[in-house]
Every structure is written in structure tokens, then in C-alpha cells.
Amino acid sequence: MSASRAGFLLSLVVRGARALSLDTARRPLSTTATRTTRKTVPAQAQGLYEPLDRDPAAARPSVRVLDLTASPVSYADGAALQHELLAANIAGGGDAVVLVEHEAVYTLGRGATLEHVLFDADAPGAPELVRAERGGDVTYHGPGQLVAYPILDLKKHRKDSHWYLRALEETVVRTCAALGAPEAARSAEHTGVWLAGAKISAVGVAMRKWVTYHGISLNLAPDLSHYDAIVPCGLDPRVEPVGALNAHLGRDLTPADVAPVFLDAFMDVFDVQLQVDADTLASLSARRRGVLE
Predict the structure, then answer these.
(1) Predicted confidence (pLDDT) per residue in 9-60, tens digit
(2) Residue 276 burial class via C-beta count within 10 angstroms: exposed 0-12, middle 13-18, buried 19 and up
(3) CB 81 within 8 A of CB 67
(4) Quick one: which of 146, 197, 196, 201 has its CA closest to 169?
(5) Are 138 and 112 in contact (CB under 8 A)?
(6) Which residues form the BPL/LPL catalytic domain (predicted)?
(7) What is the per-residue burial (b if ≥16 Cβ within 10 Å, else e) of 133-152?
(8) 3-class DSSP state for residue 264?
(9) Cβ atoms of residues 158 and 164 within 8 Å
(10) β-strands 145-151, 211-219 pairing
């Protein structure tokens, strides 16, 4: 193991984790979706990623890790956990990052219409469609996709929403590089991370009082046919398709496999120390060795 990678273990602070309630109600949608012409959207403001310039002598901010990638989690449960952590952070609690693999669900950004939803959301037996508080358009979450929800007080890091988006993308770029895809990169026109001409990572965030929630996803091996029911992120899939990392690598990685690699990159990009309970620490360390060594 390299010295830089060994730093992952040295930077984890062992800490007990309390159980959190994961129970919330789905928001109803009142408008029926209709099939529309697929089209592209204008380029989004990009901003720049720049490393944080922390005082080398100062203690690094701590971020509590909640790794829930052992089995798929419903979107409602994930949202409830985020809201609990968000409220605690605003009240003076610490930062956290939640890693999950969701059950199949479509989500709409807070300002998105149903224009890019290509099924009748109100029809009996329709796929689950949830209005989220994040920015962005419609997307899909499901098995085979790693999702990270950082609950960070940006006043401890950098009060710049564009920088934060780029930092999340940088975390995924470094994760992909560590796994064998150094060509993964940001796009000059759109948010997210792209590999071999396909979008493998989507980002959508929200903030309250400079505390972040929602976050970023990384496609490992989701069922890509689910994207046929939407115009993903409002982008024409004939021109800017959705892809997956496993197909590019020829590997069979799961969200649980990739979680420790993502955390390593997250720790470096945000220049933080991670807090995790002893059992999760042992599990993350073993999974990380299995993937990278």
C-alpha cells in the first residue's frame, strides 16, 4: 500500500455512531407527464475547482461517515436521514457524508417540470417519481449506482456554491482515476463527470444556511434502460448518452466496493479527517484493499 493511500486509514477517527430514523413520506406529483421532443439544454455555469488553502498547522475539520451501501435504501429513507443530519448541523452539530445505493426511483429537481419525464407519473403502476429539493432536472437512481450526500457547513470549507459543485465532481474524477479510468473528466458545457463521451456521474445539490445536502452519483452498473423513460438531466441521449464505469473498466464493482475509494478522494479534495465507527472502519479497509490491491 502506498504512503498516500495508507493516509486513508490514519485519517479515520474511530467514533461510535448512533442509529438514525429513516422514515419519511413521498411527495405527491399533481401534474401528468407527457412525451416531449428530446432536446439539449444550455451550458451551465461551471466555476473552477481549486484546492483549499488551509493552515497546515490547524486541525482538519471532521466529517462523520455513514456508509449505508450494504443494501439498497429507499429514496424516502435517504431523504429523511439527510434532513435529520441537516437540522443537526445547522443547530451546531458536525459535518457528515452519507453513502448509499438507492432502490429504483426517478427524481425531479426543485425547479424542473415534467417536460423531460416520458411516462405518465399518475398512471397505475407507474415508476416512482419524487420531487427533490436539489437543483437540476430529472434523473434516475437505482441499484448499481453509488450516491453520496455530503452534509457540510461550507463556512468551515469555502462559501462558494460553484466551487462546491466542482469539488464534488473532482472527488468522482479522482475516484475513477484510482479505479483505472484516469480519462474521466468534467465537461466544458455541462455539470457532472464524463467518460468516453458518456455521462457517468450527475450532481445536484441544495443548501440551507450554507449547509449542503443532496449530492452526486456515480454509475457503476445500473440498468441503463431505466434512462429511456426520461431525458436524463435534460440532455439529448443521442448526443450525450448516459454511461457506466464498470462497462468501461470491464470490472464488476459494487457501490460497497467503491465506497472506500470515494471516501479517500473526498478526504483529499475537501482536506478533512473522517470519523467512522470501528466496525465500519474495518469493513471499509478490507473493501478498499480488495479493490485497489
Answers:
(1) 334 433 333 333 233 333 344 333 333 333 443 334 566 789 999 999 999 9
(2) buried
(3) no
(4) 201
(5) yes
(6) 91-274
(7) bbbbbbbbbbbbbbbbbbbb
(8) helix
(9) yes
(10) antiparallel
Place of cell 450525450: 240
Query: Grid coordinates 498516500 are at which residue?
Result: 4
Q: Strand, helix or coil at 238?
A: coil
| Contact between 290 and 257 (Cβ < 8 Å) | yes
Maximum distance among all Cα pairs of the chain, rounded to whole angstroms? 60
Q: Strands, E, within 161-271: which ranges?
A: 185-186, 193-195, 198-201, 203-208, 211-219
Residues designated as active site:
233
CA distance 91 to 220: 35
81: helix, strand or coil: helix
Q: What is the pTM of this model?
A: 0.85
Amino acid of residue 292: L
Residue 106 has phi, psi (to 5 degrees) of -105, 140
Q: What is the mean pLDDT of residues 172-195?
A: 96
244 alpha carbon, distance to own chain's centre: 14
